[in-house]
Amino acid sequence: MLAMRLTRFIARMTNVRPARLLGAKPIASITFDDFPKSAWTVGVPLLAQYKARGTYYTAGNFCGRTVEGMEFYDDADLRALVAAGHEIGCHGFGHQPTPSLSTQTLAQDMDRNARFLAPFLNGAKLESYAAWRRAARLRAAGCAPDRRADSPLPAIT
Ligand SMILES: [Zn+2]
Predict the structure, then answer these.
(1) Are the C-beta atoms of 114 and 157 separated by less than 8 Å?
(2) Ligand 1 centroid to 156 CA: how many Å?
(3) In angstroms, what is the span from residue 34 Cα to ligand 1's centroid?
């Protein structure tokens, strides 16, 4: 537990290079972590009221399952989400504590999730990645541990 707290502290204290967005209007990013079923059944109609779209960080291991009383998305939800123009974001397939994984295991888990999601993307690329509970070691701050922060997510084959 101390190691987890320490990695979170270090991640918060690390200097990052902010990026300025072009455009005159403020932008809000609406995201859903883990894609519980209610993010589709309740979240999408709310977003539609404001003509907004969201990003759904999806862990493949949750597809079609109920875990600890939480019902998660299924295949049909993923297809409908993409058809409605929302973004699917990459998460680890197994939704494991990111800081505790070896670099190789983290990369394999992320690649597994990318392969799982590929059939639902209609050819689009994964452009976002969320680390488990926002906990990440510095090696994962940009995305995969063996990739530069500005490089694309894993190739989907
Ligand atoms: Zn999550």
Answers:
(1) no
(2) 21
(3) 5
Q: Strands 55-58 and 70-71, how do they pair?
A: unpaired
145 Cα: distance to centroid of ligand 1 (angstroms): 18
**Fold exhibited by the domain 28-140:** TIM Barrel (3.20.20)
pLDDT tier for residue 134 given thresholds of 50, 70 and 90: low
Please tell me the distance from the alpha carbon of residue 93 to that of residue 12, in angstroms, as a whole number.
25
Query: pLDDT tens-digit profile of 82-111?
Result: 999 999 998 889 988 877 788 889 889 999
CA of 90 to the centre of ligand 1 (A): 10
Domain ranges for the chain, please list them.
28-140
- Percentage of the chain surpassing pLDDT 70? 83
- Map tokens 């190691």 to a residue: 3
> What pTM was estimated for this model as a whole?
0.75
Q: How far is the CA of 151 from the centre of ligand 1 (A)?
A: 22
